[in-house]
């Protein structure tokens, strides 16, 4: 049975801009326009515009809304000021990751949760069940659009599109209501590229108007539309996890390098007991960033081998690659993968099996790329 793919409100704009459309998480999305490297470079040097309308948005409101969300996530929402957002994971009782989220504290009784498109139904059901008898729950995913403007010229482009100076002055993970491109929006200083920029919530009916306004405002400043291909290389250089690759329900946040979003001392939350046990026992493996020292690109799912292992020898892999590609900005073939904890230190070496050959790799400090402040 063929899956019926959905389209965002921006689909026709992508086609008009020459976007190559591919299936992604149940949606028809642009993978590239001018090309992955050109789009990657535009974001690093000027700005890029991304359609992320496929993401899920869940609203919880009422006296106990903050408490309900706080119980479902690992990070500390209760201590977060109103008007700020946080990155977090949502775990099951075994301490593995149901999804990674950005949670926006819009008021003392008003929370917006943004989840991955592939996990929308799962996370919506999870939050709705927890909200029963405690607070209101609404899945706003079909009512809200989300557009990301990323890059060093993002502020200039937002100003040209009519954003208020107070919006342009927002700190990291802060957000505010505004009018941009003639439509009402909520602009957040968040992103998934390693660059400065904004993620802009807009009513789905106004998403195309906003997109066109930003394209027009940004064209003289080097703005390009960016597809899924460059989105992936940008986030990998910044060592940002991708759900379904680097994290999923078989991984826990401690081994995934996300211990910084796990606040074990904040009070009880789903998965806390399991994560305490995991931490006390010590981690058997860790997610590391590495560069290829031999010729080859490590791709998702490739086996990681101990140094000196011959692929045809029958020796078991010691780990697995979760993400990998050329890094256009860093000029190296880079990757993430799980390896035994003993090999997780910077400078440790191993090999990746690529087309039947063992190709050398070395663990390096991450993020691979960090923008100048």
Could you give the topology of this structure?
Elements: E1 6-7, H1 11-16, E2 20-24, E3 27-32, H2 36-45, E4 47-51, E5 56-61, H3 65-72, E6 85-91, E7 97-107, E8 110-115, H4 120-131, E9 136-139, E10 144-150, H5 154-160, H6 165-168, E11 175-180, E12 183-188, E13 197-203, H7 207-218, E14 223-225, H8 228-237, H9 272-281, E15 285-292, E16 303-305, E17 319-327, E18 332-340, E19 349-354, E20 357-363
Parallel strand pairs: 1-3, 4-14
Antiparallel strand pairs: 2-3, 4-10, 5-8, 5-9, 6-7, 7-8, 10-13, 11-12, 12-13, 15-18, 15-20, 16-17, 16-19, 17-18, 19-20
Helix pairs in contact: 2-8
Tell me what you see in this structure:
The chain has about 375 residues and is an alpha+beta fold. The protein folds into three domains: about 5-50 and about 145-235, Probable tRNA modification gtpase trme, domain 1 (Gyrase A, domain 2), CATH 3.30.1360.120; about 55-140, 2-Layer Sandwich (Alpha-Beta Plaits); about 285-365, Beta Barrel (Elongation Factor Tu (Ef-tu), domain 3). About 20% of the residues lie in helices and about 35% in strands. The protein has nine helices and 20 strands. The strands form four sheets. The chain has a six-stranded mixed sheet with strand order 11-12-13-10-4-14, sandwiched between helices. A hairpin with an 8-residue loop joins strand 12 and strand 13. Helix 2 crosses helix 8 (about 230-235). It is globular.
């Amino acid at each position: 049975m063929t899956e019926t793919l959905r389209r965002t409100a921006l689909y026709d704009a992508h086609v008009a801009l020459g976007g190559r459309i591919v299936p992604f998480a149940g949606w028809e999305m642009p993978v590239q326009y001018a090309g992955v490297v050109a789009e990657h470079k535009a974001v690093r040097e000027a700005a890029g515009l991304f359609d992320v309308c496929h993401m899920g948005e869940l609203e919880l409101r009422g006296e106990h809304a903050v408490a309900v969300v706080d119980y479902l996530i690992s990070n500390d929402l209760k201590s977060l000021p109103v008007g700020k957002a946080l990155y977090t994971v949502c775990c099951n009782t075994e301490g593995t990751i149901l999804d990674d989220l950005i949670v926006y504290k819009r008021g003392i009784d008003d929370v917006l949760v943004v989840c991955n498109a592939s996990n929308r139904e799962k996370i919506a059901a999870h939050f709705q069940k927890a909200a029963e008898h405690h607070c209101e729950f609404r899945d706003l995913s079909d009512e809200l659009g989300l557009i990301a403007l990323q890059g060093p010229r993002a502020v200039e482009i937002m100003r040209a599109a009519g954003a208020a100076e107070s919006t342009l002055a927002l700190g990291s993970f802060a957000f505010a209501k505004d009018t941009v491109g003639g439509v009402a929006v909520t602009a957040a200083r968040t992103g998934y590229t390693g660059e400065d920029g904004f993620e802009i919530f807009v009513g789905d009916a106004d998403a195309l108007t906003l997109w066109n306004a930003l394209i027009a405002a940004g064209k003289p400043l080097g703005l390009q539309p960016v597809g899924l291909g460059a989105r992936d290389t940008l986030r990998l250089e910044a060592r940002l996890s991708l759900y379904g690759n680097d994290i999923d329900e078989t991984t826990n946040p401690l081994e995934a390098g996300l211990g910084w979003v796990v606040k074990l001392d904040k009070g009880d939350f789903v998965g806390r007991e399991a994560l305490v046990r995991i931490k006390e026992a010590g981690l058997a493996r860790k997610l590391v960033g590495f560069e290829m020292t031999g010729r080859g690109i490590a791709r998702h799912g490739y086996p990681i081998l101990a140094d000196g292992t011959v692929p045809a020898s029958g020796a078991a892999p010691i780990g697995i690659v979760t993400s990998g590609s050329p890094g256009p900005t860093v000029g190296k073939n880079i990757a993430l993968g799980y390896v035994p904890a003993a090999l997780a230190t910077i400078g440790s070496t191993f090999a990746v099996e690529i087309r039947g050959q063992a190709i050398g790799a070395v663990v390096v400090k991450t993020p691979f790329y960090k923008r100048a402040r």
